[in-house]
Amino acid sequence: MNGIAHSNFAGNMGIEMNPASIATMPYRFEFNILSGDIFFQNDYIYFPASDIPTGKFARFAPLRHEDYSDHYDKTPKNAYGNLLLKGPSAVWRNEEAAFGIHFSLRSQLSAIKVPYHLAKFLWEGSDYSPQHKIPWNSTAFSAGALVFAEAGFTFAKTILTNRQNITTAGGTVNFLLGMSGTYINSTVLDYYFTDASLLNIKNIEVDYGHSIPNDDKNNYLHPRGAGASMSFGVQHFFNYISQAYKPGMSGIKLKKYDLKLGLSLIDLGFIRFNGNARTFNIRNASAVLPGFDTTKITGYEHADSIFSAKLYGDANLSRSGSGFNMILPAAASFQADWSITPKYYLNLAVIQNIQIFDRSVTRASQVSLTPRFETRRVEVSLPLSLYQYNFFRAGIAVRYKWFVLGSDNLGWWPGLYEMNGLDFYFGFKYTSDIYDNIRFKKGKGGHCPAYK
């Protein structure tokens, strides 16, 4: 959420980027009623820039397979997704420190370095005849998905003051309730389709596991595990001027700071799945699977047993365990926020994913440059980013008093580039009108308080 996360008025919507941000928030109290972020992006399936079906989007008309295009080349394919819904949450600040508590529902998914021929079969189906009777040798690829609830506590404060320069630090500790999780890590997959119904696996080495509903039980939000996570951050302000945050200062040419630098580590944690959890390990196996396109699968357990029976002649031999850990999409981030004038800012942010273990969901890396116009009541930003350091995106975000609406990826709408994903975030919040224990009347004190 580059359009709002770097704002001085981000509050609850800035904690995920850097927990230290609330130490200098320009109000005493903010209550998040509801906010969210919906995001998906891939580098395989897309709508061409010259043929985006905006009319169908507007009418909510169903899309057909032929409406899409695909990048059918030899580069590996990647996909990332994120859903964040943050319910009633609050941040509060006094002269000494800032505190926050939040409750969220999150879903994350990633697919990394999927071979192009496998992506084609997944998209077109096994009846894609141009790829039949060709021996395919897959390189390593992985995928993972998580659904979990998060309850967290954030603490931040100023830790160093040197004349007009200050340094703040903050951290968030989360309890995680795992609801669904799955992963797959493949190192070898040599195969070919004779036709749509006959799959010949020459060699396969893969680890996979899942803790998800079986058969037709769509209870993806049922608790199946638990875990914990942490995020840490620091921010350093050059020429910090606290008086610039006060109500009534908008007409005075006084910058809040000259430059703000931040560093943070995000989503360092795991979830241990035990409920309906199964792990599998397959090594140096081969099989011929006739009736591939007509076999009826009644659930994940049925699929596991069929796969193991075909590869090993035993429906249970590939199973290796009944519980597993999954790592959250960890990342390191650097932020630089330059106050050009009291109302105009330019932000640079870098997010680099950190992947230590195989059983994880991977976060997309990116670099963004976001100019913004910011006052206490109104804010407009234009986030520009290089997603995975490669794909250009452009967006817009606005804040008006208690409402936030934005997207980091709207450049496809006017046809600046192809549409290969979506991004949308919003927020409804309430901020107190208290400053130095004095309640301001509407129209005189402004909607946001400040501090000394």
Characterization of this structure:
The chain has 452 residues and is mainly beta. The protein has a single domain (2-439), classed as Beta Barrel (Porin). It has helices spanning 2-5, 54-59, 116-124, 300-312; strands at 29-42, 45-46, 69-70, 77-86, 89-93, 98-114, 136-138, 141-162, 165-195, 198-211, 225-238, 259-273, 277-290, 319-321, 324-327, 331-339, 344-353, 366-374, 378-381, 384-387, 391-394, 396-400, 403-407, 421-431, 434-435, 438-439. It has a 22-stranded antiparallel beta sheet that branches. A two-stranded antiparallel sheet has the order 2-3. Residues 434-452 have low confidence and may be disordered.
Q: What are its keywords?
A:
single chain, 452 residues, mainly beta, Porin, 22-stranded antiparallel beta sheet, two-stranded antiparallel ribbon, globular, disordered C terminus
What are the SSEs and their pairings?
Layout: H1 2-5, E1 29-42, E2 45-46, H2 54-59, E3 69-70, E4 77-86, E5 89-93, E6 98-114, H3 116-124, E7 136-138, E8 141-162, E9 165-195, E10 198-211, E11 225-238, E12 259-273, E13 277-290, H4 300-312, E14 319-321, E15 324-327, E16 331-339, E17 344-353, E18 366-374, E19 378-381, E20 384-387, E21 391-394, E22 396-400, E23 403-407, E24 421-431, E25 434-435, E26 438-439
Antiparallel strand pairs: 1-4, 1-5, 1-24, 2-3, 4-6, 5-6, 6-8, 7-9, 8-9, 9-10, 9-11, 10-13, 11-12, 12-15, 12-16, 13-14, 16-17, 17-18, 18-19, 18-20, 19-22, 20-21, 22-23, 23-24, 25-26
